[in-house]
Amino acid sequence: MIKLSTLSESNKTQDELVKKIDELQIKNDNLSSFITKMDSTYSPT
Questions:
Q1: How far apart are CA 5 and CA 45, in angstroms?
Q2: Whole-angstrom Cα distance, residue 7 to residue 38?
Q3: How far is CA 9 from the centre of its chain?
Q4: How far apart are CA 39 and CA 43, in angstroms?
Q5: What DSSP state is assigned to residue 1?
Q6: CA 21 vs CA 6, 13, 27, 41: distances in Å
Q7: What is the pLDDT of residues 1-45, one digit of tens each?
Q8: What pLDDT is attached to residue 30?
């Protein structure tokens, strides 16, 4: 029983990590596209 509950806890933690990584990836993508936009708008050339 102890092993089972530990396993499920570990799975839950992994799920949360995956969610957080997804969120970070989305933020990263948004930031990248924003920077690209800024670059093209305010290019020094």
A1: 61
A2: 46
A3: 21
A4: 5
A5: -
A6: 22, 12, 10, 30
A7: 557 777 788 889 999 999 999 999 999 999 999 999 988 887 666
A8: 95
What's the first-to-final CA gap in the chain, in angstroms?
Answer: 67
In the chain, the amino acid numbered 41 is T
Distance of alpha carbon 32 from alpha carbon 29, whole angstroms: 5
> Which residue type is seen at 44?
P
Q: pTM for this structure? A: 0.60
How far is 24 from 27, CA to CA, in rounded Å?
A: 5
Per the structure block, which two tokens stand in for 28? 């990263």
Helices (H), the chain: 2-41
